Amino acid sequence: MAHLDGYVPNCRTLATLNQRPSPRAIELFQSPAEFLMAIHDAVESHGSQYIHTGIPHGNINSYTVWLGTSSVCSNKMGILMESNVQQKLFQSVNRLSETVLKEKPTARLDYVDDLESFYYLIAWLAMTYTDGGIQLARASYPPKLAAWAAFPESHQSVLEKRIMLEGSGFSEYFKATKTCVGGKKYVKIFYNLLRSLHTLLKLKYIEKSKGNLDHLEFYSVLNFYDKYLHFLKIAIEKTKVVAREYSGAW
Q1: ∠165-237-110 over CA atoms, to 5°?
Q2: Which residues, including other chains, have CB under 8 Å from residue 194's CB and lie 6 or more apart?
Q3: N or C: which end of the chain has fewer CB within 10 A?
Q4: CB of 11 closer than 8 Å to CB of 73
Q5: Sheet holding 65-67, edge to edge
Q6: DSSP readout, the chain?
Q7: Residue 84 near residue 1 (C-beta atoms within 8 A)
Q8: What angle do CA 132, 133, 138 make, to 5 degrees?
Q9: What is the pLDDT of residue 145?
Q10: Claim: this prediction has a pTM higher than 0.85
Q11: Which residues contact 197 (CB under 8 A, 6 or more apart)?
């Protein structure tokens, strides 16, 4: 992958050379708020770079979104990097339709595809982890997510992913479950977050599939990022409130 200005190519090397703490894998979050803040910062960085260059990142996954530290790379909660590792589990429907289903693309890949990948990453962390670094056994995953995790490159998985994107998204899972990352007290927060993000993404996916390119206009891009970040901020603040309520620290 060609290096894009603003995306850190190898933070671990820089941190080691300077004897500073290195960033942590996104899966090692210590609270729901921490990983959501990391996602927020990564999306914010992505937006800045896309608006500046017009080039999508093209590889949003658990190897490119990291938790930040007080290091030479960033003092923010999240860092967006590059990686040679590709994870089809998090790739957009448009990309998989071309690479797996061998369909003729209806629109070129752009920022919406990357933000769709962020959506899948949020859902993955919310539904397959109980706490930072503690992942559920695959048998405990929601059935659809378990199938995608096992066979992300299968035609069936891609078709089901498309149906999900065109339908109700992941939020319906949270209507039927009493557990998610951090416990059932966070279920409503993630239900609302995933529903809101899915509504944004579904609309743009449908527009793109019809050949409508209005989403590429400058103010449309800004508006999309603003809404996406707004929904993340709401979820972050609510997770902090819940954490304080249950810890008794006000």
Answers
A1: 35
A2: 119, 122, 123, 126, 169, 170, 171, 174
A3: C
A4: yes
A5: 24-25, 65-67, 78-80
A6: ----TTSBS-HHHHHHHTT-PPPEEGGG-SSHHHHHHHHHHHHHHHHHHHHHH-------STTTEEE--SSSS-SSSEEEB--S---GGGS-HHHHHHHTS-PPPSS---HHHHHHHHHHHHHHHHHHEEETTEE--GGGS-HHHHHHHH-TTSHHHHHHHHHHHHTT-THHHHHH-S--TT-GGGHHHHHHHHHHHHHHHHHHHHHHHTT--GGGSHHHHHHHHHHHHHHHHHHHHHHHHHHHHHHT--
A7: yes
A8: 115
A9: 79
A10: yes
A11: 119, 122, 169, 228, 231
19 pLDDT tier (thresholds 50, 70, 90): very low
Measure the CA–CA gap between 156 and 195, rounded to whole angstroms: 24
Per-residue pLDDT tens digits for 123-175: 999 999 988 888 888 888 877 777 788 888 899 999 989 999 999 888 777 76
Q: Which of 69, 49, 45 is nearest to 2 (CA)?
A: 49
Closest of 145, 118, 140 to residue 130, by C-alpha: 140
CB of 153 closer than 8 Å to CB of 90: no
Q: Return the residue matching tokens 């992942």.
A: 135
CB burial string 8-39: b at 16+ within 10 A, e below: beebeeebeeeeeebbbebbebebbbbbbbbb
206: closest CA among 218, 195, 194, 198? 198
Task: Report how far residue 80's alpha carbon sits from residue 6's, in angstroms, rounded to the nearest whole number.
Answer: 9
d(CA 113, CA 57): 9
